[in-house]
Amino acid sequence: MAKQSLPLSEVYGLLEPGPVVLLTTAGEDRPNIMTLSWHTMIEFEPPLVGCVLSNRDYSFDLLRRSGECAINIPAVDLAEKVVGCGNTTGRETDKFATFGLTPVPAARVKAPLIDECFASLECEVFDDGMVEQYGFFILQVIEAWIDPLQHDPRTLHHRGKGAFMIAGETVRLPSRMK
Fold first, then answer.
1. What share of the chain is helix, strand, coil (3-state, %, to 5)?
2. Would you say 83 and 35 are in contact if contact means Cβ atoms under 8 Å apart?
3. Which of 2, 55, 59, 148 is most enclosed, with most CB atoms within 10 A?
4. Flavin reductase like domain: which residues (predicted)?
5. Nearest partner of 63 among 20, 34, 105, judged by Cα
């Protein structure tokens, strides 16, 4: 079969790196939630995560000012709330109240964790050298939390233009990585 040309605007859907997450930041009036899918692991120990935020996003300003955030990982049962948060601006909306999500105080950052998410990562900005040009923040995870009652949660993955994929079966293969 011969391959066909793919519009460059659709490349994102092929390389999407991981689950859609909810990034929380502390605001002056209230905390905010941003739906985010442009992220990638950069280092394992200490865990460093790269995230792209547009300078048009309310969370961009909050993260720049505070230097900290939380990355909350939802399971697929929160899909409608995740998309709702992504389609709403925090400048005008209290997303916790609007979408029925529960803020929980974090241990080391001012940004709240989201109780309904199966995992939460407290983060500090580690490197902001590419923020001006690319909106690329490198975050260091300084505390991590997981719900031990949720085993192999199914996550939501953005494919672009309103299309999502749900994580499927986990397979284990031989690996030299420990």
1. 20, 35, 45
2. yes
3. 59
4. 13-165
5. 34
Q: Please give the full DSSP string across 30-87, using - where no structure is assigned.
A: S-EEEEE--EEEEETTTTEEEEE--TTSHHHHHHHHHSEEEEEE--GGGHHHHHHHHT
All structural domains of the chain with their residue ranges: 20-155
**36-56 burial: b if 16+ Cβ within 10 Å, else e:** bbbbeeeeeeeebbbbbbeee
pTM (predicted TM-score): 0.91
CB-CB contact of 96 with 107 (8 Å): no
- For residue 1, name the pLDDT band (cuts at 50, 70, 90): confident
User: Under DSSP, is residue 13 helix (H, G, I), strand (E, B) or coil?
Assistant: helix
Distances (CA, A) of 88 to 35, 74, 85, 103: 9, 18, 5, 18
> pLDDT band for position 12 (50/70/90)?
low
